[in-house]
Specification:
- By secondary structure, the protein is of the alpha+beta class.
- Helix content is about 55%, strand content about 15%.
- The chain contains 14 helices and eleven strands.
- The protein has a nine-stranded mixed beta sheet with strand order 6-7-5-8-4-3-10-1-11.
- Strand 6 and strand 7 form a beta hairpin.
- The radius of gyration is 30 Å and the shape is elongated.
- The chain starts with a helix and ends with a helix.
- The model has no long low-confidence stretch (mean pLDDT about 85).
């Protein structure tokens, strides 16, 4: 209570100095907001990078994932022999082992016929390999040859085709009125039989899901015995980590055994540590922080110089350095919190704009807002600490 009463009686000298020069205050807040917007955008894109590229990995309906040691991420999966799946079934605790095919292909836009790249997944339509109820409810559709499911959240102008597919689904009891949406892939005509939602990523503009047989028709040079992933489900009472350890000793070293959480971490680790994109976003955030430090330092340094005589007078009256330093830090904290407000509001609209333009999952998160607030306080505190160096060395005798 004593501290609160002391603060209430204290003259808000820092605020009075800032508000006295309103144009300078406005410039300072604009600079901090600019730095915050840069940090929010860099962190937002970085988060979208990790979220979008691990979304498919998180959707795998598997306890253990077999992957080639040469694989880098889900868009760059090497192959290994399908015999490893049969060998895996010999291990105690393994309930099922399914093959998973994946590749990037060029297809023609259903309406404009312009070519675009898209990721094609091939899976056994008799098994729910993905934890996507919307996909699992339509597995019977891709059992027919050359029929695929299309990701409605793909990057690109697919609204007209999506509307036609949705209308076909509504008119499924009236097949004579359906206008099947078709397109061409590798000189092969395919029909889009249904839709699902997953979303584009930095590695692929969208996803097609096909049966393993249709997948192999789209890639005729592909050997059916060479698969990209092996998806293993363990028995209900089995421990996935113990089964994974048994698989590592049972299988040869041409295949890597990962539990599902380890596979998600493997995917995220690539984008964090090996991909240049992750480094660029981290560097961009650091640069925004440095820019903010410089801007706030310029403002506080100018303020200290402008009020040097007043500070000298305080010293001559007996005020200690700590009191004057507290005034500068008070200004720094006021700038941090006031500048953070517009710096957080502007990215809300920019996130929506970026999400619409890129089809990436970019949205404001509480954890990110708290992170940027912490960085803003640190940024202004560092600037305040630098700006007080001249104030500490000032001698009242030199001022008059």
């Amino acid at each position: 209570m004593g501290l609160i009463q002391q603060l209430q009686r204290r003259t808000p000298l820092g605020w009075l100095q800032l508000s006295h020069e309103k144009s300078r205050l406005l410039v300072a807040l604009s600079g901090i907001a600019f730095a915050d917007v840069l940090m929010f955008m860099q962190l937002g894109f970085q988060s979208a990078l990790y979220d979008s590229n691990t979304k498919l990995s998180r959707s795998l309906n598997a306890d253990i994932v077999l992957v080639s040691p040469q694989a880098r991420n889900t868009q760059n999966l090497s192959t290994f022999s399908r015999r490893r799946l049969f060998q895996a079934k010999d291990v105690d605790g393994v309930e099922s082992a399914e093959a998973f095919y994946s590749n990037i292909i060029t297809w023609k836009h259903p309406d404009t016929r312009k070519e675009a790249s898209i990721q094609v997944l091939g899976l056994n339509p008799d098994q729910p390999i993905l934890n996507l109820p919307e996909v699992n409810q339509q597995l019977d559709k891709i059992q027919l040859p050359d029929q695929v499911l299309f990701d409605r959240n793909s990057r690109g102008d697919y609204q007209k085709a999506i509307a036609q597919i949705e209308q076909n689904q509504l008119d499924q009891n009236q097949p004579d009125q359906n206008q099947t949406v078709t397109t061409e892939v590798e000189r092969r005509t395919i029909a889009i039989a249904g839709l699902f939602s997953l979303g584009a990523s930095f590695g692929a503009d969208g996803i097609l899901i096909a049966s393993d047989q249709t997948f192999l028709r789209l890639f005729p040079r592909r050997d059916a015995g060479s698969i990209n992933l092996g998806l293993i489900r363990v028995e209900p009472n089995a421990n996935p980590e113990q089964v994974a350890a048994a698989l590592k000793t049972h299988l040869s070293d041409d295949v890597r055994v990962l539990t599902h959480p380890e596979y998600i971490e493997f995917e995220e680790s690539y984008w964090k540590k090996e991909s240049p994109i992750g480094f660029i976003f981290g560097l961009g955030t650091s640069m925004a922080f440095v820019v903010g430090v410089v801007i706030v330092y310029q403002v506080l340094s100018t303020d200290v110089n402008a009020h040097m005589k007043e500070y000298a007078t305080f010293k001559a009256m007996g005020y200690r350095n700590q009191y004057l330093l507290a005034v500068v830090f008070e200004e720094a904290l006021i700038l941090a919190f006031l500048g953070f407000i517009p710096g957080m509001v502007l990215p809300l609209g920019l996130y929506q704009l970026a999400a619409n333009a890129t089809a990436l999952p970019i949205a404001m998160k509480l954890s990110r807002a708290l992170t940027v607030l912490f960085l803003t306080v640190a940024m202004c505190s560092i600037s305040g600490a630098i700006a007080t160096r001249k104030l500490q060395s000032a001698d009242p005798a030199d001022m008059f």
